[in-house]
Amino acid sequence: MQIGFYIDQSRCTGCYTCTVACKDWHDVPAGPVNWRWLVTVENGKYPKVFVAFLSLSCLHCAEPTCISACPADAITKRTQDGIVVVDKESCLGKEACGLCEEACPYHAPQFSDEQKARVEKCDLCADRWEEGKKPVCVEACPMRALDAGPLDDLEAKYGALKEVNGFAYAEKNRPSVVFKARQPELLSLASNDDAAPL
Predict the structure, then answer these.
(1) What distances in angstroms separate CA 39 from CA 69, 86, 167, one per listed residue?
(2) Where are the beta strands (DSSP E) in the chain?
(3) Residue 109 lies in a domain
(4) Is the sign of the CA dihedral 96, 102, 107, 113 positive or negative?
(5) CA angle 151-155-160, nearest 5°?
(6) Is the whole model's pTM more than 0.90, yes or no?
(7) pLDDT above 60 (res 37)
(8) Nearest by Cα to 119 from 64, 41, 168
(9) Mean pLDDT, the chain, as a whole number?
(10) Which residue range(s) make up the domain with 54?
């Protein structure tokens, strides 16, 4: 079984609740490390503009290049659910290595600014799964733009869309994610004849 994420780009308002909830739950200090982050996508020009948001994290790939890049075996993929986890104690640190950060196309493995910082990233709230709960980002989202579960179930429920504005699917890695895209609205200016009277 492979657990993954569903991300509904059409519902996300860019409120950052998911990122704050993640930092709070995992005691990630204020600073550059975010286990979940928000991408803003802007396209077009006035009057036809497109703005969307994308909540991303480690996507627990079927073939994680961070694992093959790590010389210390500090990153592993759990056989029971496919969650990619890190062992910070085994990590050589950014100054001595940092290869996982370079290998990941989504920049999920991260290091703080502290000296001898060791790798950290989303673990899909593995502790919560063991209690029968979904990840904290899913439960915190006020717009219900996130879900998580077995990838086969997510695809059966939401479809199998793998790319949206702001995200390219890495075939080599096969990230465990499905999306619902936000469609660009076709905006047009009303003519003076069509304009409502003041």
Answers:
(1) 26, 24, 9
(2) 3-8, 36-45, 48-57, 75-77, 84-86, 146-150, 177-180
(3) yes
(4) positive
(5) 115
(6) no
(7) yes
(8) 64
(9) 90
(10) 3-180
